[in-house]
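Structure tokens please, single chain.
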Amino acid sequence: MITAGVDLAAQPERTAVATIKWAAGRAVIEDVARPADDKVILQAVERADKTGIDCPFSWPAAFVSFVTSHHAGHVSIRADEPGSRRNLTTRRTDIFVHEQLGLTPLSVSADRIAHVALRCAVLLTKLQAARGPVDRPGSGPVAEVYPAASPRSWGIDHHGCKQQTKTDALGRLVGHLLDEAPWLDCTTHEQAIRRSHDIFDAVIAAMTVRAAALGQTLPPTEDDMAAARAEGWIIIPDKPIAALL
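Here you go.
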């Protein structure tokens, strides 16, 4: 099996892609790329059995309705009642991640990640043209991932690492990952991974969709499925990292 991970940014210069080949008792990081334009990403998706993309796949349904109503001049004054704005800025999957892991994903409708989501929307359209409809809950060839969530679920705390200014912070994180997954062969690309958060997150994304391919992630409940189909769904591993083999 081959999996790919994409740490998507608004521009190719900050976008990274990683590809992992899985075999009995071993996983080899075969390729990493940064920068990565849409052509590089689409080539990685085409080669992989499954690809994880670090970006919201869509916006909160309530936000879409709010903007549509605003354009038509029919916004309800109830939209400013206490708590109502949370529905405009938070997807159901964001709430689920917080409930499970205590992490709060960036709001796709009220944070700078919206710029990335605009690129992702175009990218998903290109993928749909090439490979058929994109399943936003993640059962198809691509799935939405959150690189801070997967390490947390595997016992590797990724939270806050990007805010550290010391150059060895990422190195410690990579070291922790390799301690927990000694079967991960990153020899060829280890220095690149240790130098770039973007490449590291792409590797985590590729590992996360391996869990999804093996049925080792938390799917939407029946009550959440409608929201997942419209808004996207962050896949979270629910088994130890060793189970990826």
